[in-house]
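Researcher: Next sequence.
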Amino acid sequence: MEFPVPQSQAAKQKFEEEKEKWHKVGTEPVVVPAGTFLCDHWAKDDGTEEIWASSKISPLSMVKSSAETPPRCYAKVISGATDHLPGTTMKFDPQAMRQQRQKQNQ
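Model: Next structure:
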């Protein structure tokens, strides 16, 4: 089942404001428990945070972050992962779910 996550205008604006506080430092290899990745190195302008991101990691692309104590890093590569959904996904519809429950309870 697919659950939509609506994003308010305020949330979009906050994201844009946060994005402006970061700058790219360069590109460098990063060694983490999952392996070695060529990453874009980003730093927050106030010096409080750094992240290393790789386009080869999905969906979030973060390989390492200095924001946590101890720093977080990508620990495992899952290869050959498959989708275990039995069919196609559909959007979550609360009304349809209520109707289905009412039919089951009759």
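Model: The mean pLDDT is 82. The longest helix spans residues 94-105.
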